[in-house]
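Hey all, quick one. A colleague (J.T.) asked me to put the adenosine monophosphate job into the tracker so the inputs and the structure tokens live in one place instead of scattered across chat threads. No bug as far as I know, just bookkeeping. Sequence used:
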Amino acid sequence: MKFIQFLLNLFRPQEQRVDGPAALEQPTAAVPEEPTAAVPEERKPRVEIATGRAFRDLPLHPEVLRGIEATGFERCTEVQDKALPITLDGQGIAAQAQTGSGKTAVFLISIFEKALRARDRGESFGKALILAPTRELALQIYRDAEALGRDCGLRYAVILGGVAYEQQIEALKADADVVIATPGRLIDLMKQQLFDPRQVTILVVDEADRMLDMGFIRDLRYIFRRLRHYDQRQSLLFSATLSARVLELTYEYMNISEEISVNRKDLLVETVEQCVHHVGANEKLRLLLGLLHRESWERVLIFTNTKAEAMRVAQVLAGNDYSSNAITGDLPQKQRISTLSRFMSGQVPILVATDVASRGLHVDDVSHVINYDVPQDREEYVHRIGRTARAGKTGKAITLATERDVHNLAPIEELLGLKIPVVWPEEDWFMTDRSRGGRQGTERPGVPQRRRRPPTGGRTAEAAAGPKAAEAKSARAKPRAEGRGRRPSRRRGRGAGPRQAESGS
Ligand code: AMP
């Protein structure tokens, strides 16, 4: 078993490696040797982001407050301001907050308070479990905890893969109050009965989307299923994006009272010129060909919602003499990397990708992102268009919306806080698809083609978008004016919903 794990480890990136014989050979300490060493530059207080209420106005124990003040924090950052009143009340949150927002202090202060309040009542606190995707992050959390919680008298265990077991086992046996862990090693220790997950009264999942990107979903589920029921513990989840797959986790395994989001600096995509073209689904390919013909692009990333569509688009592009590759989740990792390097080197200037395939891969610095399909998940839109306009360059993000996916636009615009300008394609923007041997019309291949009428009974995106969209059409590039679809609320009350009731976690 250990040998298989060892072999598997060789194929994993360093930060994802789980424990094995190789790990045992490394004499590294489980926690930093100098936990109280000088605060590194990147962890220094940032007063410019701390504009919320004063910490002394929060119901905090003097021990907790002393640690906060000694760290140099006076006022809350936005995420602290929004989250702490809820978490200090014992409730669960899912917070969209990135590194740099002050999220670490939210969960650490919540843990400290919970522990001290239990102590005041003469009750056992149980344990706090903080899950982090990488060793580096886990160690950073530990250092922050040492600094912020210096007067709270809590004991820590830092459980990481790739380092010696002894010290970690000792820390667990010494009944650590706060366990900061990467998933792999924690599972290993759980299997050896060295960590009892049922003692966890407060669960923190940090950088949840990164954990999912790194393939930790099964590990997380393994751990979550063994915790006590979500009604008997507090759950705090932090993630750079609250995407559907992250929220799915919270629905299943956490009792979340509030979803919190803070001002998204990554949404300030001012250098990206965004537009939507409304088009009938049956005309979309020809519009794509027309856009590739009209736009002056260097490198184009085309996103589709499905693998099948990615393959189809790549095939059509090849049939029209465009050098392109498709990258889907089916492609082995090695091939994905070589496809990507051909794209990045400019050898193949068009890449057709699904979101899953492009996730975790560094594809950026492209001149054009074309959303061949409107993403179903609004966070994906931000990820997609973030691939362009890097490093001060300008970029263009074009979205093709048809009657099948136009409803996905409203939630995206809600997230962005803006209307994506609509540009109505002119008739001569539609090109013949030569891969089909010019079967679609009598025009000469490669020349602009007249726009076709939608088949009888079919609806164009314009029709689907309602009469106001037609008004917008007359105004050409004016912002789209059709009504917004309401995003189904993902908030959950404290009671279990159907999924939660089913999960029995
Ligand atoms: P984090 O998002 O937890 O990684 O924290 C980012 C940075 O913000 C760290 O350098 C913290 O020291 C700093 N920070 C967090 N909370 C505050 C606060 N309330 N006041 C000033 N700086 C803070």
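Adding what we noticed when we looked at it: The longest strand covers residues 272-278. The mean pLDDT is 79.
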